[in-house]
């Protein structure tokens, strides 16, 4: 028994449990942390850059491009220019978008689907089509109404016919096939 008492050290050393912060500094650090969070939220919540629609932001890019120095035109043989290749002709036909005035009343114009925001609150749900933000009930084109924005799809009403479009899937334009519009 006496041997055991000699094995235990008599020095009292406080074990280190990590970084020691004096008690009077804890409330000061807590207040600084809360203030930082408050001001960061105010900065991002009231940012004027978030209020601008994507169309206004995309208009700034062409003005920057216009300020660059123009490149001199390349010398091209006129015989080659007059003979377009088959690939170029096919590409020109697919890249053309039909203006809304030339569409039949039962055809839907092309829609570029660039953003889909789903929230539990109805008023916070939105989608962005052709650079413009729309909410449920809005009409992005003639005879087209956004009925409902769901988590993975958007339900549209076009001329009284209800159809769905997957989130972030572009609509190429044309007639709406009510059975499967997403497979076009």
Automatic annotation (TrEMBL):
Record domain Type II secretion system protein GspB C-terminal: where: 108-167
Presence of keyword Transcription: no
Domain of life assignment: Bacteria
GO cellular component, one term: type II protein secretion system complex
TM helices/strands, residue ranges: 20-40
Keywords: Membrane, Transmembrane, Transmembrane helix
One Pfam family of this chain: T2SSB
Entry protein name: Type II secretion system protein GspB C-terminal domain-containing protein
Organism of origin: Chania multitudinisentens RB-25
Higher taxonomy: Bacteria, Pseudomonadati, Pseudomonadota, Gammaproteobacteria, Enterobacterales
């Amino acid at each position: 028994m006496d041997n055991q008492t000699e094995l235990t050290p008599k020095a009292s050393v406080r074990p280190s449990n990590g970084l020691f912060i004096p008690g009077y500094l804890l409330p000061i650090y807590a207040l600084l942390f809360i203030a930082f969070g408050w001001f960061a939220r105010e900065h991002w919540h009231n940012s004027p850059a978030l209020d601008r629609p994507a169309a206004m932001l995309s208009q700034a890019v062409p003005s920057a491009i216009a300020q660059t120095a123009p490149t001199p035109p390349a010398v091209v043989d006129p015989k080659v220019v007059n003979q377009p290749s088959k690939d170029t002709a096919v590409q020109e036909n697919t890249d053309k978008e039909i203006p809304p005035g030339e569409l039949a009343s039962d055809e839907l114009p092309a829609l570029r689907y660039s953003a889909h925001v789903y929230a539990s609150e109805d008023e916070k749900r939105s989608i962005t089509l052709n650079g413009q933000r729309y909410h449920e009930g809005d009409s992005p084109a003639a005879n087209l109404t956004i009925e409902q924005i769901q988590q993975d799809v958007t339900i549209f009403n076009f001329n009284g016919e209800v159809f769905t479009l997957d989130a972030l899937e572009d609509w190429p334009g044309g007639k709406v096939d009510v059975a499967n519009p997403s497979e076009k």
